[in-house]
């Protein structure tokens, strides 16, 4: 499928051909469900997870079964496992996978299940989806992590780290952020507390590991006794668990932090979406904030989709060349009373300039849950499409241009080929040794001290004295070697 994408730069917009490489849908049957998380596996395939809704006639209650599906690199299903009755059959509850990890034995699934409370479960399966072991903690003592809403959790060292809201005091009137560190089995090892406040209730929604093994926490700042929130906080915690700085952003709006990225320069880019606004007559927007290493606000920019009533951000990733890929949903009005919600994927540079945007207008009233960028810069998105789990691969036009340039740079360019007299070889900077070998690996000619330190140069080789046949030209540099086949004819 070919789609049209628009580059939005300071120069006139450029139309290029954008490819949706493939898209796959996995049916949940005649019931609803949710997509939650996915990973790319070592075999370049994908492991996707979600929850399938079921209705129990006896209890007349809805429950959610966990669903895990393994695909190949083209998104084709290899196997599927649904677990509740088969793995944890003694509970009537809601089960949601949160984190997937590939292990030497197969895969580990960490998630939460609800039975009045949010409890913890950990399931280990082999590469075919067969259960190896499981751990469920329904104890009041809570020896394991509590996993659920406002409990962002991520992998940390050999285990996990979780940020959560914690209230205490005579009337539970003091709110703090609790940071919990657990081992690979989810067993709690340590707990720390930050941001005591009597007025606001902090609900962490994002936790990010810094390059120095510290943490950045993004937390909604809720107003006590109200259904509204007033901005959000970004808190930096050092590797020894001490608070470094704390900044409040988005005052007078109901911002929710959607993604935090630390660059190589240790600057922070904070992406925030707005679900409702405390300022009347203002549309729901998405914002990008740039913070210094010390937490100073450098600038902020509205990155909403131009003709949208609402721009939601689901996931943010950074590319190899320092750009940002943002995936989410956009709400657009059909008329004065009705609207539609569909997917979008867009890219920004570090100045907050939109480079391109791709809409999925056929994905009506559905949701993107997660996205990742593969080693070639392709964007894989995961979400829900009606009663289906949805997985798609989308090419990034800027990564494609970069990949082609790198491939061309790595190619050994020589001409004419075949040749009977001479052949010209284009050398790259630092390439100073060239060898011609026959098909058996025997050295025919060798040239040393050629090329230049900077710039490219053409080097001409005389092959009139070489017998006709197939040969291989090898060029060496400190960075490696390049090899090309040449045919000599007489």
Describe this structure in words.
The chain is mainly beta. It has 1 helix and 36 strands. Strands 23-24-25-26-1-2-29-28-27 form a 9-stranded antiparallel β-sheet, with no helix packed on it.
Strand-helix topology:
Blueprint: E1 2-7, E2 14-27, E3 33-40, E4 46-56, E5 61-71, E6 77-83, E7 94-102, E8 106-114, E9 118-126, E10 131-137, E11 153-156, E12 159-168, E13 174-182, E14 188-197, E15 200-209, E16 215-223, E17 229-237, E18 243-249, E19 254-262, E20 268-276, E21 286-291, E22 297-302, E23 310-318, E24 324-333, E25 339-348, E26 354-360, E27 367-373, E28 379-385, E29 388-394, H1 397-410, E30 413-415, E31 422-427, E32 433-438, E33 443-448, E34 457-462, E35 469-477, E36 480-488
Antiparallel strand pairs: 1-2, 1-26, 2-29, 3-4, 4-5, 5-6, 7-8, 8-9, 9-10, 11-12, 12-13, 13-14, 15-16, 16-17, 17-18, 19-20, 20-21, 21-22, 23-24, 24-25, 25-26, 27-28, 28-29, 30-31, 31-34, 32-33, 32-35, 35-36
With strands numbered from the N-terminus, the spatial order across the biggest sheet is: 23-24-25-26-1-2-29-28-27
Helix content: under 10%
Distance between the termini: 48 Å
Low-confidence stretches: 1-17, 85-93, 276-281
- Average pLDDT reading: 80
Q: Compute the number of helices.
A: 1
Q: Describe the biggest sheet?
A: 9 strands, antiparallel
Entry keywords:
elongated, 3% helix, 59% strand, nine-stranded antiparallel β-sheet, mainly beta, disordered N terminus, four-stranded antiparallel β-sheet, 36 strands, 1 helix, 490 residues
């Amino acid at each position: 499928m070919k789609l049209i994408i628009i580059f939005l730069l300071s120069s006139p917009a450029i139309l290029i051909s954008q490819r949706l490489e493939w898209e796959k849908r996995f049916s949940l049957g005649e019931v609803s469900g949710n997509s939650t998380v996915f990973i790319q596996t070592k075999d370049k395939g994908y492991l996707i997870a979600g929850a399938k809704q079921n209705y129990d006639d006896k209890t007349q209650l809805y429950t959610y079964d966990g669903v895990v599906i393994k695909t190949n690199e083209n998104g084709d299903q290899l196997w599927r496992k649904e677990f509740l009755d088969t793995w944890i059959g003694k509970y009537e509850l809601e089960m949601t996978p949160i984190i997937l990890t590939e292990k030497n034995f197969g895969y580990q699934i960490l998630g939460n299940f609800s039975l009045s409370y949010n409890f913890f479960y950990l399931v280990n399966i082999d590469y075919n989806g067969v259960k190896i072991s499981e751990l469920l903690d329904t104890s009041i003592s809570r020896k394991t992590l509590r996993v659920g809403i406002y409990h962002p959790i991520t992998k940390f060292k050999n285990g996990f780290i979780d940020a959560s809201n914690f209230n205490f005091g005579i009337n539970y009137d003091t709110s703090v952020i609790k940071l919990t560190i657990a081992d690979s089995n989810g067993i709690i090892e340590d707990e720390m507390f930050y941001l005591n406040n009597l007025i606001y209730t902090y609900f962490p929604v994002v936790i990010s590991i810094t390059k120095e093994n510290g943490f950045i926490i993004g937390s909604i700042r809720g107003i006590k006794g109200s259904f509204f929130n007033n901005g959000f906080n970004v808190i930096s915690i050092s590797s020894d668990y001490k608070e470094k700085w704390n900044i409040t952003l988005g005052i007078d709006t109901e911002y929710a932090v959607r993604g935090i990225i630390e660059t190589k320069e240790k600057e922070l880019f904070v992406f925030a979406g707005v679900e409702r606004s405390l300022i009347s007559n203002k549309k729901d927007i998405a914002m990008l904030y740039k913070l210094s290493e010390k937490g100073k606000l450098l600038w902020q920019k509205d990155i909403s989709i131009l003709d949208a009533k609402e721009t939601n951000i689901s996931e943010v990733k950074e590319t190899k060349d320092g750009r940002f890929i943002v995936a989410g949903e956009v709400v657009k009005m059909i008329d004065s009373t009705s609207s539609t919600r569909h997917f979008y994927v867009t890219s920004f540079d570090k100045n907050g300039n939109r480079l391109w945007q791709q809409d999925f207008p056929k994905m009506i009233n559905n949701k993107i849950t997660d996205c990742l960028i593969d080693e070639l810069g392709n964007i894989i998105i995961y979400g829900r499409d009606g009663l289906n789990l949805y997985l798609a691969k989308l090419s990034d036009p800027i990564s494609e241009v970069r990949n082609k340039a790198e491939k061309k740079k790595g190619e050994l360019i020589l001409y004419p080929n075949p040749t009977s007299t001479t052949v010209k070889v284009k050398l790259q900077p630092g390439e100073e040794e060239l060898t011609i070998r026959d098909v058996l690996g025997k050295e025919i000619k060798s040239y040393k001290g050629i090329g230049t330190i900077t710039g490219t140069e053409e080097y001409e080789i005389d092959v009139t004295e070489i017998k006709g046949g197939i040969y291989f030209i090898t060029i060496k540099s400190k960075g490696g070697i390049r090899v090309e086949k040449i045919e000599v004819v007489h």
